[in-house]
Amino acid sequence: MRTDYRLGIDAGGTFTDFVLADKSGQVRLYKALSTPQDPTQAIRNGLALITEDLGVPAEKIISNCDLCINGTTVGLNALIQHKGAKTGLICTAGHEDSLEIRLGHKEDGYRYDPEYPPATMLVPRYLRRGIRERVLSDGSVREALNEADVRAACEVFKAEGVETVAISFVWSVLHPDHERRAGEILREMLPDVILTLGSELYPQVREYTRTSTAVVNAYLAPIMKRYVTAVDAYFQSLGAKQPVRYYQSNGGLAIGQAMTDRSVYAINSGPASAPAAGQYVCEPFGKTDVITVDMGGTSFDITLTKGGVTNVNKNIDFLRYRIGVPMIQVETLGAGGGSIGWIDEMGLMQMGPQSAGSDPGPACYGQGGAEPTVSDANLVLGYLNPDGLVGGRLPLDAKLARAAVKTKLADPLGLSVERAAYGMFTIVNANMVNGIRRVTVERGYDPRDFVLVGAGGATAAHICALAADMGIDTIVLPKLASGLCAFGQIISDVKYNYMATAPLRLDNDAAYARIDSLFNEIEAQGIAHLKADGFARKDIDIRRSLDMRYVGQVHECTVEIGTFKVDAKSIAKIKEAFHKRHEELYTYSERHSTVEVVNIESTVYGRVDKPKRMALGKGTPVAKALKGHRDAVFSADGKRVKTPVYDGGLLGTGAKIAGPAIIEEVTTTIVIEPGWTAALDDSGSYLITRERKGG
Question: Among candidates 478, 476, 464, which has minimal Cα distance to 690?
Answer without folding.
Answer: 464
